[in-house]
Structure formats: C-alpha cells, structure tokens
Amino acid sequence: MTEIRQLTSLEQWKDAIKGSAERPLLVFKHSTSCPISAGAHEELTSYVKDSAGAEVDVAIVHVIEDRPVSNAIAEELGVQHKSPQAILVEDGKPVWNESHWNLTYAFFSDKLGRPANAAE
After folding, report:
1. Is residue 29 part of a domain?
2. In a domain, 119, yes or no
3. Domain membership flag for residue 62
4. What proportion of the chain, given as a percentage, has pLDDT over 70?
5. What CATH code is carried by the domain that includes residue 108?
6. What pLDDT does residue 117 have?
7. How far is it, in rounded angstroms, from Cα 117 to Cα 120?
8. Does 117 map to a domain?
9. Computed from CA positions of residues 49, 52, 54, 56, in that sequence, does the dihedral angle turn out positive or negative?
C-alpha cells in the first residue's frame, strides 16, 4: 500500500521535492483544527488505501504544527497557501493544485487514476 509520509522538517521537504524528479509527489496541506480539512484528509486516506502500488508518492504537512515546512512549500512552488490543499508536483514544479470541498475521492481518482481496488 502507498503510504502517506508526514513532512515535519525542511530537510524532509527538500528530499520529497527532489524525489519528484523520479515519481510525481502529491502534497496534502492539512489543518488539524479545521473540519473541512478533516473531511478532505479522510477522502485522501480512503483513496490512498485503495491505490496500492500507485505511481505517485504522497506526503502530508500539518500546517499549524509544521508551519515552516508549509511556508517553504508555498514559497518554493509559488502556490498560494490554502488548507486543506493538494498540490501535484512533478520534477520540482507544481502541475495542479486544488483545495477545500473539491478534495474528494472522486477528484483524486480523476486526477491520479482510478484505484484498482475501488468498488465499481
């Protein structure tokens, strides 16, 4: 199963973005105090659980607890901060980003591919 890796340091972020040269990286910016973010997190978790062997790495940053990492992501990618927010990064550059109520299982399936384990 694909794992969601938590980014808690700038070094981890640098490693993750460097790895996006080999495999796309989905960065999920999560506010642990926001109910909208909690719902989006649940949608992403369900998608990832069903997407064993997906061709994308997934990382999460808790925007309150790890604000320097969240700020570095926004600055380095040139993507205005929102939370919840999903950003797909390929070769160190943002391909797309979306936020709030749009972050659903169906959205992730559309953008990243339908999971092999998804119910018909």
Report:
1. yes
2. no
3. yes
4. 94
5. 3.40.30.10
6. 58
7. 9
8. no
9. positive
Domain count, the chain: 1
For the chain, give the mean pLDDT: 93
Q: Note down the domain range covering 80.
A: 4-112
pLDDT band per the 50, 70, 90 thresholds, residue 118: low
Q: What is the pTM of this model?
A: 0.92
pLDDT at 108: 95
Residues with Cβ < 8 Å from 58, sequence gap 6 or more?
A: 2, 3, 4, 5, 25, 26, 28, 44, 48
What are the CA-CA distances from residue 12 to residues 22, 72, 120 (Å)?
Answer: 16, 11, 37
Phi, psi of 63 (to 5 degrees): -70, -25
Q: Is the pLDDT score of 116 beyond 70?
A: no
